Amino acid sequence: MAVDITLLFRASVKTVKTRNKALGVAVGGGVDGSRDELFRRSPRPKGDFSSRAREVISHIGKLRDFLLEHRKDYINAYSHVMSEYGRMTDTERDQIDQDAQTFMRTCSEAIQQLRTQAHKEIYSQQVKEHRSAVLDFVEDYLKRVCKLYSEQRAIRVKRVVDKKRLSKLEPEPNTKARESTSSEKGSQHPSQESEEKPATEEYPEKVPAESQPELGTWGEGKGDDELSPEEIQMFEQENQRLIGEMNSLFDEVRQIEGRVVEISRLQEIFTEKVLQQEAEIDSIHQLVVGATENIKEGNEDIREAIKNNAGFRVWVLFFLVMCSFSLLFLDWYD
Amino acid sequence: AAAAASIRERQTVALKRMLNFNVPHVKNSTGEPVWKVLIYDRFGQDIISPLLSVKELRDMGITLHLLLHSDRDPIPDVPAVYFVMPTEENIDRMCQDLRNQLYESYYLNFISAISRSKLEDIANAALAASAVTQVAKVFDQYLNFITLEDDMFVLCNQNKELVSYRAINRPDITDTEMETVMDTIVDSLFCFFVTLGAVPIIRCSRGTAAEMVAVKLDKKLRENLRDARNSLFTGDTLGAGQFSFQRPLLVLVDRNIDLATPLHHTWTYQALVHDVLDFHLNRVNLEESSGVENSPAGARPKRKNKKSYDLTPVDKFWQKHKGSPFPEVAESVQQELESYRAQEDEVKRLKSIMGLEGEDEGAISMLSDNTAKLTSAVSSLPELLEKKRLIDLHTNVATAVLEHIKARKLDVYFEYEEKIMSKTTLDKSLLDIISDPDAGTPEDKMRLFLIYYISAQQAPSEADLEQYKKALTDAGCNLNPLQYIKQWKAFAKMASAPASYGNTTTKPMGLLSRVMNTGSQFVMEGVKNLVLKQQNLPVTRILDNLMEMKSNPETDDYRYFDPKMLRGNDSSVPRNKNPFQEAIVFVVGGGNYIEYQNLVDYIKGKQGKHILYGCSELFNATQFIKQLSQLGQ
């Protein structure tokens, strides 16, 4: 177990002080020591870098506190049931999302700025390493806080999807009623082309008004037409068919929504990995470009060498031929 | 069993606390980052490196880690954590740092206790530099030992020569030098027990260096316990250990009781790696010669790349197989490789399914399954990659070991030595093996002969000895170690009968059909698959006797020390008649992995008992032979 000897240290500082005083040694302090220290420390370069980094950290801390504070309200599914104190409307949630995102963006920009600044300033190797490590820590902190935010958001989105799914399951009679109106509308179409336009105009108006009484008036309004029992049956059959179709469509849409959420999660993972690989791929690209250039130069050199070789051979041949001719000439001359 | 639970964990926790400004470390996922700089000396480096990787240091917020005696630039606004030994030069350098105002605040941690006068030196320098308030905390860490495994520790790596076998057994050693060596050993052992949080009962043999260590350690523990105000063994340091009625047993043995084991050729994975390759502080350095041996004429010779691997507790394969015999290791690597390939294929298959999916519109129902599968595949990718890395690592290491085995015919030596040590009949004469030019380096032959000499009941006749000497010199060996062993044997004969190694048999399992399947990289043709029968080395036997309170002429006259007793007595009668649950074996003069493995195997059979193994230095046979030859000159 470690033993804290800080107090022992302070005691030895005191002993040394008193000893020095007794000996009359001039220490760089004494009574003025403490004051001197204060003076000494303030003009010391406070390190612009670290104070800025600390600022960024405090900002991120504020964001984190803010998110944590409102987290409970944010993910509360039964907010419309609870009292107003804990309620949070969707608009407020959107507002929080917006704010959080802008905040995160500014923070990451600030970190980038610090990084470029740290690189530009020429300091020793150790200080550079230290600064880049510090910035890595800050980025990591930001990532962790962003994870908080994205978790919250994912929960919210999932809740919304679930809610939509549930809300589509429940009002069966409502949907049926809606279907009957639309089916009625649909069946009216082929019979009455002229009424198509006003019908379609009325349709968008009528759909939001899902209330039964309106339906009743509507139905009554159309009741002037004779609905023979066969037509009623036909309409009912069509209703059933359309209901079946709609249901299956809704099922599929539900499934697709779920899968889309999963796919988006996967996409996130993939983008993360791809971004990680980006740097490596860049470097590989550089290397490959360098390699192709080297090979090109190599080819050039080889071509030159071949040319030189050939040229050299030509000269040697020429020289030999000249020598033999000169020999012949000399021989003939003599 | 909490007291002996992983000395490694305790030391790691202590280190992490120190790095966290001496406040217990709590993992907080949304905590603000704090950054600091770590400064250590070589001792500190050796202690930290087997326990914390660079990534773990980063996680603790350390941006830079530097050696104390290197050039360091001032980094303003950063707290610095120092982890050094309180030696003169270190203190001077620290005072210099204070004067140069390199960092914002200083957290000083001394590996072992610092003396009052040195503390005053620092105080002086701090005053002179007006930096007293900057020195935030000063701690004595009591961590002066290196933990290599969960249950194995070594005293030091840096100044090995000071406490080596040679240093202790030199004929020309003076008393003061001996005192210094003993003090160093006792200091480390004391730190070890402080970290463990328990006061042991000490037993040691008489008349050896171990006895001197035991006396000093007992005195030191006693002094510390008496000093009620500052005792390190009270309060919340003990924790659960306070309530255990069992105190651990510390068995101090001297290397001289068993000189054959360090020379022995071995067959288990970890011990082989230590013997054959460059392995220390859990890091093995391999020199890889890549590719084809015969390079085309005119080409530049292939560069040998040096690779180094860390064998850590995270490496599950290593943890499982470090004590298994080598052929088993080879098989397991193959198995791991196959299972990895199967997993890889599954992931690839998934990819092809997804590719198919894009074309086939109708199979939308398969989509949801596949997204789930894909998510799980993607999340399991890092695991797969890690597994691949480990498999590669072990393949390389095992291949390197195998090459050595084949080149030096280590299996032959192993078998023969086992036979010698168990006194079964030898089928080949020793002279044949020594004169055989292919089998092994001169050092191997020397080792074999020394083992023969040590474990022979009576010394071979002069004529035989001359014959052997001639054969050895022909093979190129240096005969100095033999000189020393002769002296030692004469001395040991006077003291007690030479230790016997128990009866063992090795069963060669013929030519291995299992390992020699096609596609296997470990074609171990001609290498016998030897099965290790359980045997107890002398150290294990001694431990067994002492732990189980068995009566045995070997251990009956071991001295008994109990630092907690009010008055030390010289008796050898243990007060406690119950068998011990935890034991710590410490070998003064050096130890090795063979003994460690033997102890681990021994304790595996016993439920609920723990053993820790420690030695003053860890050497392999090569280093030991060197020391012996220096002694024999």
UniProtKB/TrEMBL annotation, chain A:
Membrane topology: Single-pass type IV membrane protein
InterPro entries: Syntaxin-18_N (IPR019529), Syntaxin/epimorphin_CS (IPR006012)
One term of GO molecular function: SNAP receptor activity
Main localization category: endoplasmic reticulum
A Gene Ontology term for the protein's cellular component: Golgi membrane
Example of a GO biological process term: intracellular protein transport
Annotated spans, Disordered: 166-226
Domain SNARE-complex protein Syntaxin-18 N-terminal per the UniProt entry, residue ranges: 4-96
Pfam families: Syntaxin-18_N
Annotated compartments: Endoplasmic reticulum membrane; Golgi apparatus membrane
Record Gene3D superfamilies: 1.20.5.110
Transmembrane segments: 312-333
Compositional bias segments (type: Basic and acidic residues): 166-182, 192-208
Entry keyword set: Coiled coil, Endoplasmic reticulum, ER-Golgi transport, Membrane, Protein transport, Transmembrane, Transmembrane helix, Transport
Family to which the UniProt record says this protein belongs: Belongs to the syntaxin family.
Biological role stated in the UniProt entry: Syntaxin that may be involved in targeting and fusion of Golgi-derived retrograde transport vesicles with the ER.
Quaternary assembly: Component of a SNARE complex consisting of STX18, USE1L, BNIP1/SEC20L, and SEC22B. RINT1/TIP20L and ZW10 are associated with the complex through interaction with BNIP1/SEC20L. Interacts directly with USE1L and BNIP1/SEC20L.
Identification of the protein by name: Syntaxin-18
Native source organism of the sequence: Mustela putorius furo
Lineage: Eukaryota, Metazoa, Chordata, Craniata, Vertebrata
TrEMBL record, chain B:
Highest taxon of the lineage: Eukaryota
Any one GO cellular component localisation term in the record: Golgi cisterna membrane
Membrane topology per record: Peripheral membrane protein
Location in the cell: Cytoplasm; Golgi apparatus, Golgi stack membrane
Pfam families linked to this entry: Sec1
General function of this protein: Plays a role in SNARE-pin assembly and Golgi-to-ER retrograde transport via its interaction with COG4. Involved in vesicular transport between the endoplasmic reticulum and the Golgi.
Main localization, broad class: cytoplasm
InterPro entries on file: Sec-1-like_dom1, Sec-1-like_dom3a, Sec1-like, Sec1-like_dom2, Sec1-like_sf
Protein family: Belongs to the STXBP/unc-18/SEC1 family.
PANTHER family reported for this sequence: VESICLE PROTEIN SORTING-ASSOCIATED
Keywords: Cytoplasm, Membrane, Protein transport, Transport
UniProt record, GO biological process: protein transport; vesicle-mediated transport
Protein name: Sec1 family domain-containing protein 1
